[in-house]
């Protein structure tokens, strides 16, 4: 096996890359192999087989498929049934004791007077959470449109933040109260399936072909791939071979520190415990971790790794890279803070768009660290 893998590694080549972000990149490898060999290759040369967190990342990975590579492995594979919130929040399993009685297909939770489980492909109305005009923090919103759970997830992520997640009894009552006008159960963001990503990413994004996969007890379709010609994710057995594999590189994990500090102390904390304050050097950087930033339930701005030079007045990231007004930036209202200023540091709003604002560096704010993985 080791010799076979070595020969494959020597013959394989990177065909295309996408998502030009320091935080998250995808590469497609031309390599005729099964899923486990593809995973070994990615781990040896990149990071792991690719994870998808949203529709945008799905589109980025699909664009990598070119002539000679009509299908490629991705990281989604069968493990064991687990509970997952759509936005990646941790699930308190003891709070949801009534699980589906049979481990078949994928099941999603809906609420009305009680919590019930249905096939995720059933159409239902659903509840999102997100910020509307004038909202200072996310609100619950019942959407009276019948969609599958996966379609509802995409709707919420595109228009608001995500399907609603419930972390305690108070939130459960709030969700029930918001859904009182409904006469039928509505989807919430709780998923129960046996699919996991190879990198351990807490992504509940799924884009199955037509219907959810068959139970593994009946047909051994335990690994997933993309096809250039079709707009879905497909499942096959380990015996199948694909033309290539999509690897991910430069992934990052975000840590929101709920302890208020001045900017300098926040920087020192992140440097000591992680890999520094969070930096965005391109729109792709922001897109790469959009899903991790959603659902923070914080109000007001948080420190990021951006500050103004006290000597020259221009804005600079903590790695020394300056923010050029002619390049990409994400300032609130598109307005570059007026110069010269002094003792000003960069913060990020915690609602959709994650716009930058300038704050006095001595202000006490929560902050965001990054950890490169």
Automatic annotation (TrEMBL):
What region holds the C-type lectin domain? 15-129, 140-213, 255-370
**Signal sequence extent:** 1-19
The cross-references to SUPFAM superfamilies, in alphabetical order and at most eight, read: C-type lectin-like (SSF56436)
Q: Domain of life here? A: Eukaryota
Is Signal among the key words of this record?
yes
Keywords carried by this UniProt record:
Disulfide bond, Signal
What SMART domains does this protein map onto?
CLECT
CDD domains in UniProt: CLECT
What is the designated name of this protein?
Answer: C-type lectin domain-containing protein
């Amino acid at each position: 096996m080791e010799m076979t893998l070595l020969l494959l590694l020597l013959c394989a080549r990177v065909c295309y890359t996408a998502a030009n972000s320091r935080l998250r990149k995808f590469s497609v490898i031309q390599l005729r192999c099964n899923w486990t060999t593809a995973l070994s290759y990615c781990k040896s040369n990149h990071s792991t087989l690719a994870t998808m967190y949203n529709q945008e990342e799905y589109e980025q990975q699909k664009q990598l498929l070119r002539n000679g590579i009509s299908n490629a492995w991705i990281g989604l594979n069968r493990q064991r049934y687990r509970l997952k919130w759509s936005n990646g929040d941790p699930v308190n399993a003891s709070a949801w004791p009534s699980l589906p009685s049979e481990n078949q297909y994928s099941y999603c939770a809906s609420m009305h007077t009680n919590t019930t489980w249905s096939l995720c492909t059933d159409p239902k109305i659903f509840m999102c959470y997100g910020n509307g005009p004038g909202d200072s923090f996310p609100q619950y919103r019942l959407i009276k449109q019948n969609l599958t759970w996966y379609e509802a997830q995409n709707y919420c992520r595109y228009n608001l933040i995500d399907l609603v997640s419930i972390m305690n009894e108070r939130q459960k009552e709030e969700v029930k109260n918001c859904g009182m006008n409904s006469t039928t159960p509505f989807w919430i963001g709780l998923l129960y399936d046996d699919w996991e990503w190879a990198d351990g990413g807490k992504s509940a994004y799924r884009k199955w072909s037509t219907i959810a996969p068959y139970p593994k007890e009946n047909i051994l379709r335990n690994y997933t791939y993309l096809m250039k010609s079709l707009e879905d994710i497909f499942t096959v057995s380990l015996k199948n071979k694909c033309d290539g594999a999509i690897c991910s590189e430069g992934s990052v994990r975000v840590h929101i520190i709920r302890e208020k500090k001045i900017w300098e102390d926040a920087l020192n904390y992140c440097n000591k415990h992680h890999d520094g304050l969070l930096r965005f050097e391109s729109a792709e950087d922001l897109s790469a971790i959009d899903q991790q930033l959603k659902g923070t339930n914080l109000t007001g701005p948080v420190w990021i790794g951006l500050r103004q030079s006290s000597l020259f007045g221009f804005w600079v990231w903590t790695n020394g890279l300056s923010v050029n007004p002619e390049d990409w930036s994400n300032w609130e209202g598109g307005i570059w803070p007026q110069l010269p200023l002094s003792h000003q540091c960069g913060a990020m709003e915690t609602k959709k768009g994650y716009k930058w604002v300038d704050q006095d560096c001595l202000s006490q704010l929560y902050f965001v660290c990054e950890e490169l993985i």
